[in-house]
Amino acid sequence: MASIKKWTVEEPYLKLDGGLLEAPFYEKDLHQLRFVDIVKQKLHVVDLNKGPSSHKAYDLEAAVGVTADIEDSQDDIIVGAKHGYAVLNRKTAKLVYVKKLWDDRDERGKEERMRLNDGAVDSGGRFWAGAMNDPLVTEPTNEGVLFRLDPDLKLHRVVENVTIPNGIGWNVNNDTMFFTDSPTKKIYKFHYDALTGEVTDRRVFFDLDEEGVVPDGFAIDVEDHLWTAVFGGWKVLRISPAGNVVGEISLPTRCVSCPSFAGEELFIATAAEEAPEQYPESKKLAGSLFRVNVGVQGLPVNKFRTSMGVELPKTAGS
Fold it and tell me: Please, which contacts does 132-141 make with residues 24 or more away whose CB atoms are closer than 8 Å?
């Protein structure tokens, strides 16, 4: 059996009292990192040239689960928010919805009890994002949906009957899509057609056979390995293309939510400790942002783009 490479992180890069930090996103052109707090409805930004002292936090008018850059846009980004996809202004933090998720085919109340969670943009400029029950409204059930917003702004329901949709990403060859449904403890893989965005042949890539923990968000490196957060497990695992654990990052807090690359550094978001009396040590640094150099770079992220003649709505300040 191959040995497992191990890293230990003892101190946070940015100590915060976050509720649910998610979606760290490296803005390469600006060399800054942004991430969200879904529960406290904040957008956080830090200039990596200046370090933690440059940290800024912006109040949001809705819960945001994931963000992505827009091609040829300096002022606005696109986000997965409470009711659907929205354009968010970097300077004012004001948002305008592009496409809401639910329509006449859905039962009443779905708009309030659901929200978008994790997501990513594929090589065709399509924005994939998963909707789940909002834990602030109701307990999670399997009425979640993995959506895809295309450059023509048409919305597609790609995978239904999911509970907590998390990590989404593509391999180096761009012919396989990975997708996590956390309560199943499984990361799935699909055959992916980069030309059309269609996915087929769903099967299990990795099954986290541990009690009391689930896979959460993930990042993919240039060697085709997945780095998945293990919520409840104090760690991030590195998983080989064959589905074997080959690396492990140990963290000083339990509820690890999502990693993201900035060069060879992996930034890791965490959430508030869900059982502080049972895990007082975890509570001390819960809801903070961590950083570790893992010696390999992540795959570049894609930008959302619109078809010719299709325009996104403008936000206040753009």
Answer: 132/162, 132/163, 132/164, 132/165, 133/163, 134/63, 134/82, 136/39, 136/63, 137/112, 137/113, 138/113, 140/164, 140/183
